[in-house]
């Protein structure tokens, strides 16, 4: 079995599964510590990674390129890290299964590049199906309709590091439905916002939010 996994023809799939396991462990540890890696990654990614498209609408040809692919894979409705984990898992498992069947019928393995192309093509619809299911299950997506602009005026708690101008830190806040969101904040000014402190969101700039120290304890959740 080990010889099969480390064969040159299967190396892309074994590496993909190893990376998937590593990312899943990081996400699990982050959730236990209250600082989910997926939330941090989504906050750091540019707007182009979160296409605002109706992924269930009929294909009219209006979506194209990377934006269309990301929207089709439910990026924006499911954390990008989760989609990446699903893609790595689908690619890795699909590739190994393909090589297993190929060896069973022909006695040899497909060249690595050929098996990788075929496995990636099969992994895309599998990833989409998994992401679609996740979008209906994970708590984050129950409040996707809440505009991030509604976060302005809400109190957040810095959960990961201190925030300084040019060096954002992760903060957790609750929306009007009581659901938690992780956002990246910088101070609105020169003052440093220390880890664990309460801050008031005052402005949105792209995927970043500007905040000040909470001026009124009565605003706290």
Major β-sheet, in short?
5 strands, mixed, barrel
Strand coverage percent: 15-25%
How large is the radius of gyration?
21 Å
Q: Order of strands in the sheet with the most strands?
A: 1-2-3-5-4
Keywords:
221 residues, alpha+beta, OB fold (Dihydrolipoamide Acetyltransferase, E2P), 2 domains, 5-stranded mixed β-barrel, 6 helices, 43% helix, elongated
Structural description of this entry:
The chain is α+β, with helices and mostly antiparallel strands. It folds into two domains: 142 residues, no CATH class; 72 residues, Nucleic acid-binding proteins (OB fold (Dihydrolipoamide Acetyltransferase, E2P), Beta Barrel). Strands 1-2-3-5-4 form a five-stranded mixed β-barrel. α2 runs antiparallel to α5 and α5 crosses α6.
In short:
The protein is of the alpha+beta class.
Q: Which helices and strands appear, and what pairs or packs with what?
A:
Layout lengths: L1 H4 L5 H23 L3 H8 L20 H8 L7 H27 L5 H26 L17 E6 L8 E6 L5 E8 L10 E8 L2 E6 L8
Parallel strand pairs: 3-5
Antiparallel strand pairs: 1-2, 1-4, 2-3, 4-5
Helix pairs in contact: 2-5, 5-6
